Amino acid sequence: MNYEEFRDFRIADFHRLFRSGELTPSALTTAFLDRIRQTDDRLNAFLLVNEEEALREASELDHASLDDTLPSLFGIPVAVKDNICTRGIPTTCGSKILADFRPPYNATVVDRLRRSGAILLGKTNLDQFAMGSSTENSAFGPTRNPFDPERVSGGSSGGSAASVAAFQVPLALGSDTGGSVRQPAAFCGVVGLRPTYGRISRYGLISFASSLDQIGPIARNVEDAAILFEALSGEDRQDSTCAPYPPFSCREIPPAETVRNVTIGVPREYFTSGLEKPVADVIRHTLDRLDREGFRLQEISLPHTDYALEAYYIVAPAEASSNLARYGGVLYGYRSANVQGLLDLYCKTRSEGFGLEVKRRIMLGTYSLSSGYYDEFYLKGMQVRTLVRRDFEKAFEQCDVLLSPVTPGVPFRIGEKVVDPYQMYLTDVYTVPSAMAGIASLSLNCGYVEGLPVGMQVMTAPFREGVLFGFSRWLEAFLDLPTPWPGRFGREEAH
User: Fold this and answer.
1) Can you tell me the distance from the alpha carbon of 100 to that of 326, in angstroms, rounded to the nearest whole number?
2) Which of 62, 338, 453, 490 has its CA 20 to 30 A from that of 392?
3) How far is CA 90 from CA 102, 260, 386, in A?
4) Cβ neighbours of residue 440 closer than 8 Å, sequence gap 6 or more
């Protein structure tokens, strides 16, 4: 298979070849498996390749009837972040403490993928328990950026974003707590969606911070991201936080001719001194082009933006410290050897099983939840969260979409920020506020700085994913950037 020949293919194009008999699900799956074998020793995007099972599933689809009602993801290989449960298949969370864990059930999203005809190609790398912004915190080594292997892929869904950018797979699932889908999507030049909180079931997603965690699709274009979101969304009785809304339908996406009627808000707090000039120039150039195109651009204020990151790093670690208390070496997962007594078992198992960043956040969270400090820290953090959400509510009274950078800079070098947690946390400064507010937001490539991609964040009010996809699809076509193709994984071939 000539992979570059297929670089611009969408789901509809693969389905057209299936119907014409020029391609079969088995041939497509085999081609992507070959691509993984050729490339993953340099990227480390996959923790597990589900080769035997994927080929069996594809073979069954080869003999299916190809009528007009083809399931939306029929025969399309999909990778799944390794904090999403897959029955009988290792689900490690990127951590030594779950290295041998095989869930006895599927996450709801995995069942929905299979019902839509998708083929589970493998599990992708991540920061341990989704705690990180670079995928350097994985116990199984970092995932490298396909545009420059000396740089990070972003995190925590770095494996999923890198695998899609490198065309090891056309679609992937990530999870986003404070930016973990959108930030790596921006660093790898692909499309990443964080849907409205509650729009996709979290049943089977291993918890980090339950009031923030969301599963989101990653794709090479907006159209495919919408189709994948359509397959995943909808109410789920197994997740009490899942909104009682019908599944999203791509029919909710407005036609291109109506997109020009939207009012675009530009939050002034996202264009301050922390934003690197080359990235700011790319974002402002895009805004200028939209202005010349006749869109109504309006400066918006989100006055509590500066407090969102600090509040996030109280709320999220507090919930993480509670969720991760279950890993003690008793019921499942890693257990330390040569322990003396129950307390020693807990101490040694967690000390040896968890990575440094996970331990740091457990300590932060436990402190803020401890007696005498709950009101001072966790409650205060939740109050700030309410103020951040109200900022967005007021903003969406004045505009239909908000545009901002996804990250303050381009992908940084591996090891550059790992010794300074605060600098690492600042890479999520533009994605955390919308996560705290629970609104829908999407990362879309809008240009390059020295061959490295720059992401534009598109945000809408809750449950307005139709508008989000409609505007993003129009913007993608308007920008007309080449589909990511870091052929030999070097910036000189990035676009």
Assistant:
1) 16
2) 453
3) 5, 47, 38
4) 193, 194, 195, 196, 199, 459, 460, 461, 462, 463, 464, 465, 468
Specify whether the CB–CB gap between 184 and 162 falls below 8 A. Answer: yes
For residue 150, count CB atoms less than 10 angstroms from its CB and return exposed for 0-12, middle for 13-18, buried for 19 or more. Answer: exposed
Sequence-ordered list of residues with C-beta below 8 angstroms from that of 282, at least 6 positions apart, any chain: 446, 447, 448, 449, 454
Q: Which two tokens stand for residue 430?
A: 């533009």
Give strand pairing partners of 456.
Answer: 405, 444
Q: Which residues are tagged catalytic?
A: 81, 156, 180
- Contact criterion met (CB below 8 Å) for 83 and 132: no
- Spatial contact of 407 and 183, defined as CB atoms under 8 Å apart: yes
Alpha-carbon Rg for the chain, nearest whole angstrom, is 21
Q: How far apart are CA 130 and CA 123, in angstroms?
A: 14
Amino acid in position 51: E
Phi, psi at 396, each rounded to 5° = -75, 0
Nearest to 168 by CA among 25, 410, 23, 6: 6
Task: Calculate the CA dihedral of residues 369, 370, 373, 379 and round it to 10 degrees.
Answer: 20
Q: What is the mean pLDDT of residues 440-464?
A: 97
pLDDT digits (tens, 9 = 90+) for 160-216: 999 999 999 999 999 999 999 999 999 999 999 999 999 999 999 999 999 999 999
- The answer to whether the CB of 248 falls within 8 A of the CB of 230 is yes
Q: How many CB atoms lie within 10 A of CB 399?
A: 22
CA dist., res. 365 & res. 208, Å (int): 12
Dist. CA 168–CA 43, nearest whole Å: 10
| AA identity, residue 192 | G
**The overall pTM is greater than 0.85:** yes
Please tell me the distance from the alpha carbon of residue 258 to that of residue 243, in angstroms, as a whole number.
28
The pLDDT of residue 495 is: 43
